[in-house]
Amino acid sequence: MMNLEGLPEWSSFIEKAWEEAGYESFTSVQEKAMPFIYKGGDVVAEAPTGSGKTLAYLMPLLEKVDPDVKRTQVLIMASSHELVMQIHQEVLEWTQGSGIGSTPLIGGANIKRQIEKLKKKPAVLIGTPGRIHELMERKKIKAHEIQTVVMDEADQLLVPEHLPTVETILKAMKQDRQILLFSATLPEEVIEVAQTFMDAEAEVVQVESEVMKPKVDHVYIACEDRDKIELLRKLAHVDGFKGLGFMQDIAKLNVFAEKLIYGKLDLGLLHSDAKKEQRAKAIKEFRKGEYDLLLATDVAARGLDILDITFIVNLDIPKDETSYVHRAGRTARIGAQDGVVVSLVNPVEEKRLKKYARDLDFALTKKNLYKGKLVDAK
Questions:
Q1: Fewer CB in a 10 Å sphere around the end CB: N or C, the chain?
Q2: Cα distance between residue 193 and residue 158, in whole Å
Q3: 251 and 188 fall within a common domain
Q4: Which residues in 234-256 are b (16+ Cβ under 10 Å) and which e?
Q5: Are residue 220 and residue 197 in the same domain, yes or no?
Q6: Would you say 269 and 282 are in contact if contact means Cβ atoms under 8 Å apart?
Q7: 99 and 234, same structural domain?
Q8: Domain limits for position 191
Q9: Torsion over CA of 229, 233, 239 and 243, rounded to 10 degrees?
């Protein structure tokens, strides 16, 4: 396993996890961020979806955690239940044999059970701001003991919905705590908010988007709205298809799902109105390959990390360029095969999509479906 300048030799449990994961080298964001994180400095990191951001902060932080000290040393905040559980799963995989305990804290789950787990004083907590704040109010989390706080998908945390809660959590922590911000996109206004509570000398790490590089093909099929369900059904039968279908509107997404299921197509559904258990079940079954299509809203799929997704299908056009990047980033993850982003667009959506392609500088090809294959449109 490689070593990085500024970091000691990795502990055996990290080396073992690295080997089992089959990684050969660090990604750009990992190389740039890890030394600063290990030294204890504040870091703001903007790197594309699928670039290894989670490990960029997890590895140096887990290396620093002392399992013999029975208190919470690291707090990781994320805006969605799915992302919290995903990060927790990653922590479990990278702490095997280390003696480092962790627990997820999300709203909707049994708070008494969470309090019981907190009595074991896990070194790493991963949770949503609302539930973390509630447990702090109940004096079940001792904020002043926590050395490092991570905000994963920080652009979703530093928004009006979550900001007051996040600020309350930070104010309860000690002054010299370490703050790490990670996201695929960090708009200027988010960075300005972050600067109000971060060290003035915080290291800013920016990695250019690889989402728009040749590993991902961006194509579109021109159609009317009424044709989209049938086109998606045909796409789902394309050879090698394992796809995420995106739509902003939950009601429309449900209609798509009902009609496709009625047409005997197995699929999973992922949106914020579904119960926590239903969402977890949908992700688990999709990972296991029980079906090859998962329909999702943008919010519900935030942070979703499934290695072998080959197709992203935009059933509507994302509301902005940032959302397009987030959707596209769910395919061709590190260590995965190439991916295709297929947008099913009506004439109005086609114009917006072409604008995104110009602004984000990616090649966009018009395609048709012919005999179960995507072919260039004439």
A1: C
A2: 7
A3: no
A4: ebbebeebbbbbbbeebeebbeb
A5: no
A6: yes
A7: no
A8: 12-206
A9: 60
Residues 298 and 269 in one domain: yes
> Count of alpha carbons within 13 Å of 364, Cβ hemisphere only?
21
Which pLDDT tens digit goes with each residue over 203-218?
A: 888 876 554 454 789 9
The whole-angstrom distance between residue 123's C-alpha and the CA centroid of its chain comes to 22
- Provide the angle, in degrees to the nearest 10, between the axes of the packed helices 81-94 and 276-288: 50
Give residue for tokens 């007051």: 164
Residue 69 lies in a domain: yes
Nearest alpha carbon to residue 343 among 308, 307, 376, 318: 318
265 inside domain: yes
In sequence order, what E strands does the chain have? 43-46, 74-77, 102-105, 124-127, 148-152, 178-183, 203-206, 216-222, 243-246, 268-270, 293-296, 311-314, 339-345, 364-370, 373-376
Can you tell me the distance from the alpha carbon of 294 to that of 287, in angstroms, rounded to the nearest whole number?
10
Greatest Cα pair distance in the chain: 66
Gap between the Cα atoms of 143 and 331, Å rounded: 37
Give the tokens for residue 35. 């030394």
Residues of the chain with pLDDT under 70: 1, 22, 208-214, 276, 299-305, 307, 332-337
Task: Dump pLDDT digits (tens) for 109-139.
Answer: 899 999 999 999 999 999 999 999 999 999 9
Count of domains for the chain: 2
Q: What is the pLDDT of residue 200?
A: 77
CATH number, domain of 113, equals 3.40.50.300
Residue 266 lies in a domain: yes
Rg (CA), the chain: 21
Q: Which amino acid is at 134?
A: E
**The dihedral formed by the CA atoms of 343, 255, 322 and 204, expressed in degrees to the nearest 10:** -130
Round to whole Å and give the CA distance between 125 and 141. Answer: 10
- Asked if residue 198 and residue 319 are part of one domain, the reply reads no
pTM more than 0.70: no
Same domain, 124 and 251: no
For strands 203-206 and 43-46, give the pairing.
parallel
* In-domain check, residue 4: no
